[in-house]
Amino acid sequence: MSNVILVTGGSRSGKSRFAEGLALSYPALRGYLATAEAGDAEMADRIARHQGRRGEEWETLEEPLQVEETIRANDGRYGIILLDCVTLWLSNLLFSCDGGAAEALSRVERFTESFKSLQTPLVIVTNEVGMGIVPEHPLSRTFRDLSGEANELIAARADEVHVCFAGLPLKLKG
């Protein structure tokens, strides 16, 4: 069984940089599983900034939907895999799954069940989206609830959990 570390926090809280730092303590080659798609110029800029922080000891895998399958297909290939991020994966699933949030959550549950069979350590980045106002739009509330439930499932099965606030990490578990 591999070591699974969850890193959560709000937008721009430093969670990705912290997660990358954790992953650097593992041997190269490191896999970076990116779930974002550059749908506009602002997102393309965000992706470029993330890529710019990583050195040549990282290999990027881009997969917006088949996260569990991609990790399983690359298990044992890397010293560590960093998944960034669950929140974008959930958004992608919510818009692509015929079964909506229920199917997306089922995929997350299946993903967490795979932790016990993985050999490669895994660092998972996600966002805490439920700490603010209640969204006005029903789809936004569905997404907020899905994110919270998914984070609970992952945290329950992770070996370590960290939260970042204002660039400062706090260890919650492990």
**Strands of the largest sheet, in order across it?**
3-2-4-5-1-6-7
What sequence of helices (H) and strands (E) makes up the elements? EHEHEHEHHEHEE
Strand residue percentage:
15-25%
Shape: globular
Rg, Cα atoms, Å = 15 Å
Under CATH at level 1, the class stands as Alpha Beta
Share of helix, binned: 40-55%
What is the CATH superfamily label? P-loop containing nucleotide triphosphate hydrolases
N-C termini distance: 15 Å
The residue ranges in which pLDDT falls below 50 over 5 or more consecutive positions are none
Question: Can you summarize the main beta sheet?
Answer: 7 strands, mixed
Number of β-strand runs = 7
Indicate the structural class.
alpha/beta
Please give the domain count: 1
What is the CATH topology classification name? Answer: Rossmann fold
Determine the number of helices (DSSP H or I, runs of at least 4 residues): 6
Kindly state the mean pLDDT as a whole number?
93
CATH-level-2 architecture:
3-Layer(aba) Sandwich
Task: Kindly describe this structure.
This protein is α/β, with parallel strands linked by helices and 174 residues long. It has one domain: 3-Layer(aba) Sandwich (Rossmann fold), CATH 3.40.50. It has 6 helices and 7 strands; from the N terminus they run βαβαβαβααβαββ. It has helices spanning 15-23, 41-53, 67-73, 86-96, 100-113, 138-157; strands spanning 4-9, 30-34, 58-62, 80-84, 122-125, 160-165, 168-173. It has a 7-stranded mixed β-sheet, with helices on both faces. α2 links the parallel β2 (30-34) and β3. α4 packs across α6 and α5 packs parallel to α6. It is globular, with a radius of gyration of 15 Å. 31% of the residues are buried. The model has no long low-confidence stretch (mean pLDDT 93).
